[in-house]
Amino acid sequence: MSDRDIDQQLVARAQRGEKRAFDLLVSKYQRRLARLLSRFLRDSADIEDVTQEAFVKAYRSLPAFRGESAFYTWLYRIGINTAKNFLSASSRRPMINSEIEDEDGESFDMASQLPDLNTPESELMNKQILATVNAAVERLPEELRTAISLREMDGLSYDEIARAMDCPIGTVRSRIFRAREAIATELRPLLGTAKNKRW
Amino acid sequence: MKQSVSELIDSELDERAARHVIAAIGSDPSLEQAWNDYHLIGDALRSNSRVSIDVRAAVASRVAQEPTVLAPRRWIRRPQARSAGAAVLAASVSFAAVIAWQQLSGPGRVTMVAAQSSPAATQQFANADAYFLAHQEMTADQGLVKVTYAGAGSRGAGTRRAGN
To answer: Is the reported ipTM for this assembly greater than 0.90?
Structure first.
């Protein structure tokens, strides 16, 4: 089942009244949406507020979602409109010209050139998460590290990874899962301290 | 089951297994935690600069106050249903074409067909004619051609529309 089909499954469940299905979509896309919004908004508190508002608007609009586009493409438009409304209401100008935004907001990377107004706490948390994940990856056995890197960074399918690593596909499934669990085990204490805290 | 969550995230499950795992995630907090963690790890490995953001609790709290969404499943396209609709449309067009052809073929042909028809077939045709007469006010006037019904004398009809 493709990524788009999985999203549509979750949307269909949410449309039937399963709010937890919508939680899974929030969990999956919140960082991607926040990264997109950081191209319009400088303040990290604003980014968090608009991210939250965009998801609530998406939930309210779910009955109108017909699956004609991918869920993220639809969410992307809601996010952009929410950011523009936010800037308009607060009489602030967007940081970028809307004409130069690309369709999914992924390839345009002006954000790295813009001043980042992360709070010290959110900046620290970002760095801690990235450092923890990178350190955990470094400590993985080589075959697990290679498998998770080929999957997450290079976007290869399990079949392609199996051919690249010359091993059965079942081994790839196991290696990627074990890599994720090893990284998550190191990450969970850090995330536990951050729970319910606004960064 | 956590391994299945990992495979689901990578789109490596078939539809049946994926549905099963999605349902399980919704009812098992440890699987939901795995779903969250694995997505966070993926974003971190792809150097997402916003890995610390977490609006799940805030969004869930606000969504909980919203009326429950209950939307029809019309957006799920069914090729079979669409094919059936196309077949019905094609049959309707074919039927209209046959009727129009019969009207445009001239009095000789109508007479011939009527002469060769069995009494039952003639009665059936008369019933169809009565149906058209009864419903002609329901049809649109624009774009339709009115033709003389040559064999109308025997059935008492004057003119009728072709098509539709």
So the answer is: no
Model pTM score: 0.68
Q: Which of A26, A31, A130, A172 is the mutation pick for testing B, counting most B CBs within 10 A? A: A31
Q: How far apart are CA B13 and CA B25, in angstroms?
A: 14
- From the CA of B24, how many Å to the nearest CA of chain A? 11
Instruction: Report CA-CA distances (Å) from B107 to A101, B103, B130, B133.
Output: 68, 8, 19, 19
Distance CA(B44)–CA(B50), nearest Å, equals: 9
Helical spans, DSSP H, in A90-141: 120-139
**pLDDT tens digits for range A133-178:** 999 999 999 999 999 999 999 999 999 999 999 999 999 999 999 9
Alpha-carbon torsion angle A2, A6, A11, A17, nearest 10: 150
Contact (CB, 8 A) for A1 and A68: no
What's the DSSP call for residue B161?
E
- Chain A contacts of B52, Cβ < 8 Å? 122, 125-126, 129, 194, 199
From the number of C-beta atoms within 10 Å of its C-beta (0-12, 13-18, 19+), residue A15 rates as: buried
Q: Which of A10, A14, A30 sits opposite B69 (nearest CB)?
A: A14
Burial zone of A157 (CB within 10 Å; 0-12 exposed, 13-18 middle, 19+ buried): middle
- The alpha-carbon radius of gyration of chain A (Å, integer) is 19
Asked if B57 and A67 come within 8 Å (Cβ–Cβ), the reply is no
Distance CA B103, CA B99 (A): 6
- Closest Cβ–Cβ partner in B41, B47, B69 for A63: B69
Name every residue whose Cβ is closer than 8 Å to that of residue A194 and which is 6 or more positions away in sequence.
A125, B52, B54
